[in-house]
Every structure is written in C-alpha cells, then in structure tokens.
Amino acid sequence: MIDTLHMGLDVGSTTVKLVVMDNNGVIIYKNYKRHYAETKKYTTDLLIDALNEIGDKPITINVTGSAGLAISSWLGIKHVQEVIACNLTIEKFIPQTDVAIELGGEDAKITFFDGGLDQRMNGICAGGTGAFIDQMATLLGTDALGLNELAKNHSTIYPVAARCGVFAKTDIQVLLNEGARKEDIAASIFQAVVNQTISGLACGKAITGNVAFLGGPLYFLSELRQRFKDTLNLTDNKAIFPQHAQFFVAMGAALASRSDNPIHLPELIHHLKNLDISDHQEVLRLEPLFNSPSELDSFRKRHNQHQIKQKDLASFSGDCYLGIDAGSTTTKAVLIDEEGALLYSYYDNNSGSPLKSGLTILKDLYSLLPSSATIRQAAVTGYGEGLLKSALRLDIGEVETVAHYKAAQFFNPNVDLILDIGGQDMKCLRIKNGVIEDIMLNEACSSGCGSFIEGFAQSLNTTVEEFAELALNSTSPVDLGTRCTVFMNSMVKQAQKEGATVEDISAGLSYSVIRNALFKVIKM
Asked: Are residues 189 and 262 in the same domain?
C-alpha cells in the first residue's frame, strides 16, 4: 500500500510556498518562490515541480495564506486560516515557544502562548513587513538580501519611521542627503521594523520567555533577527530560529490536511492549468472620472474661473511680500504685491533639504528682482518653518493652518471649510465666525498624500503631471480602496495582471485620494 503524503500550499501576498510531508511530519519536498501577483502561474509551477520530485502518489492538501482563498475557490480544496496553520506547526515542532513573532510579505503577527492564546496582527498598515523592507531596499539601490549585507557593517542606528513607508522614505532621503552611510541606514531600517512590530503589535505586553522568529524576512535576513534579539535582550537559549521557519504556515496547512480524503496531484495540476480565471478578477472596477469629453470640458471651465491676478515682475515697482512654504517634500514660494497680485512663484521637490531649497529660491528670485522692487517682509510656514526662519532671517514664522486660512479668506471671505493635501499630510479645517473651529489631520498613515501619488507615478515611469492627465482617459478605473502604500502596491500589481492600464490605475488612485480625505481625515 502506498502511503499518503500531506501537502501544504501557502499563497501569501508576495510569495508562494509548498511543503510535502510524510505521515511522521518529515518534509520530503519544499519550495519557495515570489509570485509577482501571478499566483496561478507560480502555484502551477510549484505543483509540477513537486510532482516531478515525489511522483504520482495520493496526497491530502490544504491551502492557506492571504491569497490562498482564491486558489481554494478555484480548485475546491480546503482553506485553513494561516494563524491556525502556523500554530499547528509550532505546537508540533517547537512546543516550548512562549511567544512567536512572524513577518510575512504584507503582514506581521505576534502570538503569545503563555497564559492562554493571545494573537495580534497588523490591520490597515503594512509598515514593518517584508514588502516594506523591499521598498526601503530599493531606495538604497539594492534588494532585501543586499540590505542585510550592508547592515552587517553598521556602526550607528538612526531613527527611521516604520509606521508608514512614505514617512520612512523621507527619513531615509534626509539621511542620504546628510551623508549617512548606507550600512547604517540599512541597520536602521531593520531596527525600525523591530520597533514597529514590538510597539504596534505587542502594545506594551512583555515579550519574554522562549521567543520563536518565523516567516521569510526573519529566515533570510540575519541582521533583522539580530536587531530583534538585541532589542528584546534575548539570550541564545531563549531566541528560537527554527529550521524551515519560512515554511511554518505551509507546514501547518499540510498537518491540517491529514484527515482529508486523498487526491492525485496530476488531476489537480490539470485542473489548475486549464482554469480560466478571467472571470475571477480580484480587483473591482469603478465608474470613469468623466463619462464624456463634454463633462470633462465643463469641469475644466468651472475650475478655470478661479484665477489669481498676475503681474510682470521685471517691470514691477514698489513694495512686495515673500511667502515660503517649506513642506515635507516640496518647497513653494510666492512674491505678491500689496493687492495680492502674483509677481513670482516657485515649486519644486526639496530632496530632503528645505534649507538648500530655500537658498535656491532666494538666488533665483534675486536674479529676477528689479531694483525698483523692494521685498518689504518675508514669512515662512510648513515643516521647515523654524529652520528657514532662523537660517534665512525671515521676518515671520506662521503655523501652516493659519497660513491656509489667510489665503483662503483672501480669495473667499465666506470660506467655512478648507481641505489641503500635502506631501505627507492631509488637513481639513472647519471655519466658523472667522475662527478656525476644528482641525482634522491624517494620523500615522500618509496614504493618499502627495508623496504617495508621486511614488506611484515614478513606479509607472511617468511624472505626476503625466500621471494625473492619464487618469482622465480611463474608462475603467481600478478600485484600490484606502489602504496603505504597501497594500496598494500589491493591488496595483494584481490589477496589471488583470489587464488594467496606467490610465485605470491613475484614475483608481484619484478615487483613493478622495476617499482617504473623506473617510480617514474628515471621517464621514
């Protein structure tokens, strides 16, 4: 009689893992691949490879993972929740575990076993996960393994935000501009992941006893493991780095399948290879931003009614006033006359150095300023307000919410609501009786802000201006929701696999920006 084998298929957000075990729990086949949003293709490849390795033997199979539900539905095989699958493996192979920390492509989990099962998992934010590490590695011109090699030679740890990929990107850009070593930045990224996991998931609950580290990032990245070990003050006998840590969820799925009826692998492969998934699209579609050219034309005419009066700087004579907005990602400047007419404007990315950007503005402005014009006063606002006010000896430093209101009131004396989308923040100001009554801000997530949009535009090889224009031509925008940048990256990849154009993605992001403002900031 041929013994039945047990297969576990873990289809995660970024990778697919396959494990085959015998009745004694011994692994006789395992494989791990990135699927690049092509889950059907890479799952089929792994199943074929497994068949070539183990032959046509009766198998039981369960599927798990964040993308496993689709595979389960396509093939009619049982799905097991990944936390349950992972716990089955822990209980069988490392039962001494008191706490398990698992990092995946887009998820992070902590499970406390001591004193009753207590499981915590990231929700709407994928900061501090494998995909976050991939994004940060790209900024340093390497991949996750290259980041690990850099971190081996670090000497300094810098504070880097891990709660949001956009915030972290800014921190890293500033460090690069200031000449920080890539080795130190790499280690700082890993430390940020540790901080995010401990603070965001443990939430003050002590991580003590025997601590197991699971998942791909913790298996492949030795320096990430070391940062966890050092931060938690774990001795060698308390830190558990098990063999096959990257396969623990797949192993649990295999264990969970043992009581199921056996099937034959060739039949499963045949079914999957011939499956038409065109009717199984995972990304929903939305209505176009504009249903007709006339509707777009009407929109443009309505908005073009609001124009600021402009005058020629070269021929100007008299007093004028300079305003600088040193934002998180860009620096803006205007020069106006006493009536508020625009004489000069500047807008550019600050590349992490608002002071250099401010100096560039002044050099440019003074090269154009006629002798007949006098800058009577200068004010600055934004993230870099304090720095620029001191360094450039500007007259006034103003809180940006007040600056917003002053400008809005100039153009509309009866303004009662202001919505501002900046590089890393969104603000909604409610005005009542000439006073700012309420201020609402985005919190720990910068999804939907300017840097978020710029990042997507660059990843699709367009400028922000081109990206925005493309959205107008979309006939079927993709529904990307209001989730964090890391999650949306996966959604975009999936949408592209389903035939979405750059136009559809841009229009979908336009929807997401507005939804973020309405539901995360204004909280309608």
From this structure: no
